[in-house]
Amino acid sequence: MQAASRESYRAGAERLDAYVRGAEPSAVAATADDILSVAALLRREPRLRRALSDPARAGAHRSGLLGDMLRGRVGAEALDLLASMVSGRWSAPSELLDGVERLGVEALLASADLSGDLGEVEDELFRFGQVVSGSAELSNTLSDPMASVERRAELARQLLAGKAQPVTVSLVEAALAGFGGRSFTGALTRLVELAADRRDRQVAYVTVAAPLTEEEERRLGARLSEMYGREVSVKQTVDPDVLGGARVQVGSDLYDGTVLRRLNETRNALAKR
Q: Which of 29, 85, 121, 250 has a 20 to 30 Å separation from 263 between CA atoms?
């Protein structure tokens, strides 16, 4: 987002935080669903996106237009939050959509945080991403742009039924809709990181040939926390092809101590002789 859009989003996010402090988890989740339903409407209606972000219209006029459309169709809390977003300045209609989507996702994460389930939601999102990436057929089906979002969401709901928190299911649906303009797998990864960030944690993606023990994972997390000055949430991926050692990615930092990397380096060195 450009500066004006970031400022408008920040105002909406601060308003959300104030609302969350005095609300029940179920009420916040319902508000989140309302906000994400409006994001879906904006995604389908480019003319509406343009009208609600038009800098030639006063902010009060834009929020009034939104209220006329949505009053009685979404809850009062969602309408208040959305009106505060729409009345701000947006650098582009697409950035308004991104802002509304992000606000809905943050409201879902806040509801899980209030109920004490945010860590579980974070893990469920990551595990579902692992399941999807482990099956080419499932990955292709859920990422198929020719299939409707609702059809793919129904498949995801079936896969997650009885196995995941309702908030996790809603977040997966947001990923299927292309949260933030990302691919499905990219959106899932971003959602994992947003969940961790709300718990004031950094995510470390660790690839190993065999699963780490609980003690090994604890020690690795502690070491990374010392390095980054922040709690670290370790997410393991098992890939026998790395042969041994570990590859660790934290943000843009990559530490590759795998046997595979060392073999490749040796092979490349020999090839140059």
A: 250
